[in-house]
Structures are given as structure tokens and as C-alpha cells.
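Deliverable D5.2: sample structural annotation.
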Amino acid sequence: MNGFSASEAALEGFRLTRERPGTIVAWSVINFVGVTTIGGLMLASLGAPLIDYIKKGGLNSIHPEELAGVLTASWPAFFGIMAVVILFLSIMTAGIFRIVLRPGEKGFAHLRLGKDELRLSAVNLMLLPMGLVFLAIIDLVGAQVASRSGNLAGLVAAALVAAPMIWVGVRLSLATPMTFAEHRISLKDAWGLTRGRFWPLFGMILLAVIFYIIIWALILIIYAALTQLGGGPDNMLGAKGVGISPMAIVILLLTLALQMILPVLQSVMIYAPFAVAYQQLHGDQPANPLRARMEPS
């Protein structure tokens, strides 16, 4: 078996961010434009029912079946929007994989729309329903047991059901970087590549999630501090009838920038480790020249 370091792979998101800050900023702008455009398409295509649902505070509801009913009523538009969302996410994910596995390959901030992205979209379309079914089963079992035997029993039952599903998810976790690296789709080969590596990969994923949460918490703290420095949201937006000061404008722009960059940083923290894991388990040499120079000869 080829060598694999869970901690080294999990830290890839930090390395990528440090080495390519300009790319991270470019991705943040592209992601903001893409998400805003998709949101506009969703409102335009799903129409009045979704708008009424949002106005009634439906997005704050704890009953997702209500939203599901709204979306089902306009299912052709909903599935069209989902296809656009998956393609956009695949383009962004491919950019992360490209900068780790093929950094010399050019593109607009390492982003492209080609066969690699379409293959990633196809893989995501295979894996997404599987993940949704797993979550639905876990939720159903946990809720049923909790209603009969209490919340603690429900949590235990949900954990027991989740365990084999987590194992399957980890075994298939390298399907997307393998699809990108090898220009082909093969869940079977991805499954074989992870054989005997469940615990190191699980540890890598756990560390990546911890780093994800750390980044979220750090930016949230900075965001709160900036908002407080600006006198609060109402003062920054001039809602109290007082003109917006130049300092408030600067702070408002900084908070907006943080909101734009946060989802990209979190995506990098989550997806970059999988590219390194594939690279190491496949026996490839690091393609990133910056990292290669840092390694001892």
C-alpha cells in the first residue's frame, strides 16, 4: 500500500489558502455571482409559491416537508435548478482539485467548463441521491425510536444505523478526485483504492470538518467584532435615520467580503484533503510545486 498521512492531507486546505490567496479571492467573487444568479433563477422559475413560502417565514421552519411540498409543485423547474447547482458546485470543486493535482493546467482562476466538470457532475448526481436516502433513513429510524423509547434511545438508534452508512461514504469518498484525475468514472475503482484505509480516511475527514468549523467560528468572531465596531447592523445601514459614516461603509464592505469568502474557504477545507488523499494513495508525486519545494530532499 502507498503511504498516506491523514494529518498532512487534512491540512491541505490551509496550505492552498496560504499559497494561493489571489485564487481564493477570485473564487469568492465567482461563487458570490454564481449563487446570486442561481437564487435569481430559482425565484424566477419556481414563481409565486416559493415567494409566498419565504414571506411567511418558511425558511425558518423546522418542517422541511413544507418546503418539499412547495418544490414538488414545480418539479420540472426544481430539477432544472438542481442540475445547474450541481454543475456549478462541480466547477468549483474541479478548481480545487485542479490546483492540487494539475496546478499547471490553465483556466480562469483554475476554473473551466469542460469534460472534467461534466464527469464530476455525473458522479455527484450518483452520490447525492445515495446521501439523501441515507440521511432520510437515519432521520426516520431516529424519530421512530425516539417517539417510542425517548430521545436518548433515538440518538443511539440513529448512530447505529448511521455507522454502516458512514463506512460506505468513506469508502466512496475518493470517487470525485479519482474521476477528475483519471478522466473517467469508476465507483468500483474508488472503492478498491480505499480498501484497508477506512480509519485514516475517517480521521482525515474528521480533521477537515474540525478545520471547517474553526474557520467558520473565526470568521464569525471577526464579523461580530466588525459589526460591533460599526455600531451594529442598524447603524451601519443607516436604519436609525443617521447618515452612514465613512467608517461604517468600510466596515460594511469588510463584513460583506467575509460573507463572500467564508463558503469558499470552507469548501477548500473540505475538498482539498480528498485530492491529496487520492494523490498519496495512488502513489503520485505532489503536483504542487510550492509544496514540493518545501519537502526535504
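Annotation notes: Residues 246-282 form the longest helix (37 residues). Confidence is low (pLDDT under 50) at residues 292-297.
The annotation will be released with the project's public dataset once the embargo ends.
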